[in-house]
Amino acid sequence: MKKLLNIVLSASFLAASLTAVAEEAKGPTIFERIGGEPVAREIVSDIWDNHGKNPIVKNRFQYSDPVYVKQKVYEIFAMATGGDVEYTGQDMKTTHAAMNISEMEFNAVVDDIMDALDENHIATQEKNEILAILWSVRPDVVNSNISTKALSPATAAHAH
């Protein structure tokens, strides 16, 4: 009887925990918490501007169509942060496969993104969540045959 009671209590606790997690998941998305489309588009525009000033990556973007790139970046940013936006580009691995992106370039791009978040007064919690998303795509973006470099000091400073 005691074993059955423990099972019932455990099942009840599990059900309550799962319900709490499900309720929390229904809360506002990162996309919503940062201000939705207008703020996301401003962040993307600032990312583009930051890339253009960044000596490590600016040459990667000099012949790119800014309207096209900003739209794709907006789509992936919005989708990854929980916005109701369809990403119409290729997956990260396919998109970056032939680019031979180094750790240093990846970190420079992350720095540019984090700076854009700062420029738009995004709160620390959301910045950290976005940083985690960026770090999760690193294996699909960085060419592992290119020399590696640790997380840049600027990016590390953003991870409060």
Which residues sit in consecutive blocks of at least 5 with pLDDT less than 50? 1-23, 147-151, 155-160
Largest sheet: none
Distance between the termini: 50 Å
Look at the helices and sheets and give the structural class: mainly alpha
**Helical content class:** over 70%
User: Tally the helices: what do you get?
Assistant: 9
CATH superfamily: Globins
Radius of gyration: 20 Å
Beta-strand percent range: under 5%
Bulk shape: globular
The third-level CATH topology is Globin-like
Name of the top-level CATH class: Mainly Alpha
The helix-strand sequence is HHHHHHHHH
- What is the mean predicted local confidence, pLDDT? 82
Textual characterization of the structure:
The structure is a single chain. The protein is mainly α. The chain has one domain: Globins (Globin-like, Orthogonal Bundle), CATH 1.10.490. The chain has helices spanning 2-25, 30-34, 36-53, 58-61, 66-80, 92-96, 103-119, 124-141, 153-158. The longest helix has 24 residues, at 2-25.
